Amino acid sequence: MATRWGICSAGKISHDFTVALKTLPAEDHQVVAVAARKLENAQEFANKHSISRVYSSYEELARDPDIDVVYVGVIHPYHLSACKLFTNAKKNVLCEKPLAMNAKEVKEILDSAKKNDVFLMEAVWTRFFPASVQIRNLLAQGEIGEVKMVRADFCVPLLHVPRSVQKDLGGGALLDLGIYCLQFISMVYNGEKPESIQASGICLETGVDESVAVILKYSKNRMATFTCSAGVQLPNDAIIAGTKGKIQVPSPMWCPTSLVVNEKETQYPVPEPHLPLNFTNSTGMCYEAEEVRQCLLKGLKESPVMPHADSLLLAEMEDEIRRQVGVVYSQDCQ
After folding, report:
1. Are residues 211 and 322 in the same domain?
2. DSSP-derived secondary structure for 163-219
3. Are 107 and 176 contained in the same domain?
4. Domain shared by 107 and 142, yes or no
5. What's the predicted TM-score (pTM) here?
6. pLDDT in tens, 158-191
7. What is the dihedral of CA 156, 160, 165, 171, to 10 degrees?
8. Residue 265 burial (CB count, 10 A)
C-alpha cells in the first residue's frame, strides 16, 4: 500500500517536496490532495503535479479520509495552527522546519500529536541524507576518535526575500539558516543539551537577526561553533574534529552530497528532478519522506533519527540564542 500524502500550502517548498516524492516508487508514495488558501494556487499546483484533489482551505484537507500523512509547507508562524488542525483531525504530520516559533509552541504541537496518537516529525531533511547516515555510522564506530569540536556555517544573502527579513513572516537568519547548523551540532553530540551557549548577533531594523555567531560548550570539554547570516555568503561547510581525525562536510552542508573523511572524499548524489526546483538539492527531501513511510509502517509516533526531544531541544536552544541577541517575536509574548 502506498503512503498517501496531502500537501498543505502550494508554495515553493511544497513544489520541491512533491518533485522529491516523484523520485520514489509510485507504489510507495502518492500525492492525493493539495490545499492552499487560494483555490487558483492549489489548482495550478495540482495541474503541475498531476494531483486529483484540490482544496481551497486546510480544513478540507484535514477532513479528507484518504490521506495518511500531511506535509505542512506553510511559513513557520503558521506551523502551530496548521499542525494542530491536522493532528486534531487524527492525521500524521511532517512539518517543515523550524517546527514552530519557540519552545512553547513546539511543546503545544508535540502534546497535540501525543494526545491524538499520531505520528509527527519536524522535517529536518538533512538528517536523512546518505551522507548524514554515514556521519552517524562513522561517529558510532569511533572513526575519528573522541569528538572535541564541531564547526558549521550557513550564510547566504537573503535580504531581498520578504520572509527572511519581516518579523511577522518569521524572518531572521537563526530560524531559517542557523537551525541547520544547530541540528548538525546536536546530531553529532547525540541530542545532548549544551552546558552553556554564548551568542552575539546583529539585527535588522525590522527587529530580526541578520547575522548570528554562537559558541556552545558541552560536557567533557567538547565545543561547537556556528555562524549564520542572511546578509553575506560564506563557504557553508561543516567539520567534525576528533582526537583521531576529522570529517568534513563540503558545501552545501545543509543538503550534503559528499563527505571528506580524513582527506578521503566520497560522493552521495541526490536523485535527478523531473521538474525544475526552487532550492538546492531538493530531491534530497525524498529521504525524509521515506523515513516517514517506514515509521508509519512500523506504527511509530516519532522518528528515532529526528525524535520529539530533539525538536524541543532545538527550539530551546534557538530561544536562548534569540534572547541573547535580542530578537522577540509576537509569539513570545502570548
Report:
1. yes
2. HHH-GGGT--HIIIIIHHHHHHHHHHTTTPPPSEEEEEEEE-TTSSEEEEEEEEEET
3. no
4. no
5. 0.98
6. 999 999 999 999 999 999 999 999 999 999 999 9
7. -60
8. 10
